[in-house]
Write a structure and sequence with these properties.
By secondary structure, the protein is of the alpha+beta class. Helix content is 17%, strand content 35%. It is built from 4 helices and 12 strands. The strands form 3 sheets. It has a 5-stranded mixed beta sheet. A 5-stranded antiparallel beta sheet has the order 5-4-3-2-6. The longest helix has 9 residues. The two termini are 13 Å apart.
Length: 205
């Protein structure tokens, strides 16, 4: 379980979805490996048997390929409402089918939105809770999120994490793809008139 405590000041960061990820698949025409969903789903019927494919296009040569969703499935085995959504190229179904692929390239699919764009972490005198929420399951390095959220360099982020100023429930180099919370500790006073410091938070058990 996480040992993070809730601070009085809170911020919410949201990983916004900019678009669908690319599907990694080698194009038989040009050898390129990035494909994007065309937004179309093809349903072919042969008697009571159905084939359902997700249609994707090569990013380089625009060749259309098919990814099997259902092959030779009996019509009675498919939920009727879902079949209608296949036939109508429902965008939510297309998104679901893309996200279900095993090899995806998430480059350019997200942006981080924060409600504290001018928060100066290195000068902060009060602790801060940051709630990170994901609109899409993109695997993003925690380090990259902190760099984007606080506007810091990689070395500055590492220094603040190593010193205990930023407290995380997972490793800095981990890839997060779901909601989590982090805490920024207050900056310690170091002037000649400052009071003697109490026990360090990082030493608490």
């Amino acid at each position: 379980m996480s040992s993070l405590r809730h601070a009085e000041n809170k911020s919410i960061w949201v990983v916004r979805e900019l678009g669908l990820p690319a599907i990694v698949k080698t194009c038989v025409s040009c050898g390129h490996t990035r494909h994007h969903a065309t937004g179309k789903i093809r349903v072919n019927a042969n008697g009571k048997q159905l084939d359902v494919w997700l249609l994707i296009g090569c990013e380089r040569c625009d060749r259309t390929s098919k990814i099997p969703v259902h092959e030779r499935v009996h019509v009675s085995a498919l939920d009727h409402d879902r079949l209608v959504r296949f036939e109508e190229n429902d965008p939510a179904i297309v998104r679901e089918l893309v996200h279900a692929q095993r090899r995806l390239d998430w480059t350019g699919t997200w942006a981080l939105e924060t409600d504290l764009p001018f928060y100066e972490i290195e000068k902060a005198a009060e602790p801060l809770d940051v709630i990170v929420r994901f609109e899409l399951p993109a695997p993003i390095r925690v380090e990259k999120l902190l760099m984007a959220g606080f506007g810091l360099s990689r070395s500055a982020v590492k220094r603040l994490v190593d010193s205990g100023r930023i407290r995380l429930p997972l490793a800095l180099d981990a890839r997060a793809r779901g909601d989590f919370r982090l805490e920024v500790e207050r900056r310690q006073s170091s002037g000649p008139n400052s009071h003697a410091p109490g026990p360090s938070r990082s030493s608490e058990k």
